[in-house]
Amino acid sequence: MTTWLNMSLQDGASPIMEQLVFFHDHVLMIMLMITTTVSYMMITLIRNKQTSRFMLEGQMIETTWTIAPAIILVFIAMPSLRLLYLMDEVHNPSLTLKAVGHQWYWSYEYSDFTKLEFDSYMIPQEEQQESTFRLLDTDNRIVLPMNSPIRMIVTAADVLHSWTIPSLGVKTDATPGRLNQTSFSISRPGILYGQCSEICGANHSLLPITIESVPAKYFINWVSKMSE
């Protein structure tokens, strides 16, 4: 989760998020090189008086500054397109979870099991314990198995919402009357936090999302307990 004065991205909890962080660093290095080069050239032009007549026309430099940006864009576009295809690809899911956004709580349905559905509300501030986080913890957490491909179906019952978990690299709009689909796989155990990322009304900040990632055997025990 995000911590105080954290200027970087959250630690990736899924393979896609790790790739997104690598791509962010890759583009940032290209931007740094471009900024350094342009700044050097601008300072050089300001501090020096150009009196050479060859500066009025130069076919070689014009060709260079036309081809160089195109090559740079290719170095950015190729990993970007690869990531887009990876994020769109839906493998054979081990589990399907449906999230329905309401004003102002989330409802969850485990489609592979019968009678396994619940509502998830934010824990009020006066009921919080020392181990919980303000505006982030919920009374009913989503429990998901780690290292398993999960299909996420998102919709809304009233207005636009957005189901977002930054550490998983997942952000899917919840639109009334429409089912949006995404997929992810959690690579480590732990508790992951997210919030609604679409302005959905007065209590927009009261829609936290809490995922508890556990090994498969603990998930099976949880399902058995919830289905009783």
Automatic annotation (TrEMBL):
Molecular-function GO term, any one: copper ion binding
Source species, domain of life: Eukaryota
Domain Cytochrome oxidase subunit II copper A binding residues, every copy: 92-225
UniProt cofactor note: Binds a copper A center.
Compartments reported by the entry: Mitochondrion inner membrane
Catalytic activity, reaction form: 4 Fe(II)-[cytochrome c] + O2 + 8 H(+)(in) = 4 Fe(III)-[cytochrome c] + 2 H2O + 4 H(+)(out)
Membrane topology: Multi-pass membrane protein
SUBUNIT field: Component of the cytochrome c oxidase (complex IV, CIV), a multisubunit enzyme composed of a catalytic core of 3 subunits and several supernumerary subunits. The complex exists as a monomer or a dimer and forms supercomplexes (SCs) in the inner mitochondrial membrane with ubiquinol-cytochrome c oxidoreductase (cytochrome b-c1 complex, complex III, CIII).
Name of the protein in its database record: Cytochrome c oxidase subunit 2
